[in-house]
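Suppose you are handed a protein chain with no further information: no name, no annotation, nothing but its sequence. What can you learn? This example shows the usual starting point.
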Amino acid sequence: MLTPLTGPEHEGTHRLCLIAGGWHLSWHIPPAGLALSAHVPFRTESADAHPVPDAVTRAR
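A reasonable first move is to predict its three-dimensional structure. Written in structure tokens, the prediction is:
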């Protein structure tokens, strides 16, 4: 699922979320990388509506 992030510090950035083997995985996708994710289902509602669990550590 691809959802837009909110706030001026995330302008144009989206979050790619998926669940694999029961794990919640997510990545921030900058505007320049959105074309590479064109095949991913998109939600117009903000990523704030789908929070990432606190127990997940994200690598950058």
